[in-house]
Amino acid sequence: MIPSINESGDRTIGLLYYLYGPGRAEEHDDPHLVTSFDGMAPDPGRTADFATAIKNLAHLLDQPVQALPEHARPAKHVWHTSVRTAPGDRTLSEDEWADVAHRVVAATGIDPGGGEPGCRWVVVRHADDHIHIVATLVCEDGSRPDDFRSGKRAQAECRLIEKELGLTLVDAGDGTAAKRPTSAERHKAERQGREQTAREELRETVRRAMAGAAGEEEFFDRLAAAGLLIRKRQAPSGDLLGYKVALTDDRNEDNEPVYFAGSTLAPDLSLPRIRERWSAPQLDPAAAAPDDRASTPSGPAQARRHAAAAAWQAILLIGQGSDQQAAALIAASGEVLDALAKTSAAHTRKQLQEAARAFERASRSHVRAERGHDRALRYAARDLVYSGPALGRGEDGATTAMVIDMVAFLVIAAAHWHGRKNHTQQAAAARQAAEHLRTAYQSAAQHPIAVLRHRGRRLSQPLQRRQASHLRQAAPELAEQILAEPGWHALAATLTNIEAAGHEPAALLAEAVAHRELDTAGSLSDVLVWRLRRMADLPADASTMPETDTATPQSTGRPKRPSLGRNTRPPRAR
Length: 574
Known about the structure:
Layout: E1 2-9, H1 12-20, E2 32-36, H2 50-66, E3 78-84, H3 94-107, E4 120-127, E5 130-136, H4 150-165, H5 183-192, H6 198-210, H7 216-225, E6 229-234, E7 240-246, E8 260-261, H8 262-265, H9 271-279, H10 300-320, H11 323-343, H12 346-362, H13 375-387, H14 394-420, H15 424-457, H16 461-474, H17 479-483, H18 488-500, H19 505-514, H20 524-535
Antiparallel strand pairs: 1-3, 2-4, 3-5, 4-5, 6-7, 7-8
């Protein structure tokens, strides 16, 4: 149950006309009064003389305001909140909604009850899933109500109501969420056939422009390249103080662009907060970019390898570092997701975009990020952007699967951290992002994992037994579970590639297993495949590598010699 409070009105009758009217999209169905401060207020929705009834209702609510001397009347005296049930909740009865309203006005100080002075208020219902409470902010004795932090008080009361009425339990917020689109913005988007409101589209575009950007000039160049209109606010000295952005085709009734300041899109998109990412020193040498490159782009596949390595390091640091360091890494993880969503192939892009949108909520909390520790992730995001779009096949496609797998574990680590800090909305958002990443991974990994499984099945029996022995040596407690997975053959092929490259399979495998988060993996084999191929610097796309010691037809029992094509070579002597 979600209360949304707005107390900036100055015309009671104007708000009542809207609530009793058809709505901006004819969505108001049977508007009527549910209850009121005295239980006797006139109901414009249940009378033949609507015009008279609505004027009488407005006059009744405004009487305490009008009784004050004109200079003592509050300029903004209309308090308004909607209270909405979650999708899927049952429809509440009139009596239940009336009880909800009484509890909300009492909790917020609008009408505390118990003999204390209260304001006049009414409840209007014009849909099954929500009500509107309208009050005037002057008590019967002429005093102002004690409505300080009324939004938080309403939220707390709604959490109790949800439990008592058996409704969906909404995660408690902490004031760091981005502002929701208004109903007017939603209806406007519907009329224009947009999937998102202008506010949501701008927030997403600005976040992508920020991903890995090295400074103001680059950031604003990206905004312009994305087709946004930009207004900059400057001090008399010429220093830049802030910015606003607008969509070219989002205009008001005067045909002027509708601008949004960065801070109104999301708390971390104000110019001062964005600048923190650019100006922070490097605080942790271990968090440097792999080859300490600030701007030189690589190819899409190599950029994804760098991002996977940065994500791997960040997973360890989130668990071992300070809260401030973790907050910085989690925020930078959002930049990597934004960059992946922007540059990945079509068959993974939609799920990556949904993951980035969901994780946006997880990227902010009241823990102030200590910038500098996030350097490797921010460089990785920059490299992804400048390396260009990745193909959905070959090494590009396989390294996409690799980085998605690693970033999914990074997002899960963020969810665990938020859970420990009781950041319920952020933890839920991170878990939702992880689900989208799992779906994207299945799409990206289908072909490269299938190639590895095929090669693993073709390994000779002695070689398969040797790789199983390496597995039992490195991870005795997980070995039987992994051997029973369909992905075991892909892992066996990878261990064979590692051995052929001169590494010790058991030692490298033990190192890969030692790291956290295997307990959340859908397939332990797949996770270890990508960890090992990254650690050993093997091609992610195994089809570019020669097959090694493949099985032969059972009728001969002799090893089959691989062909010596362009991408193959004879097996090494053993």
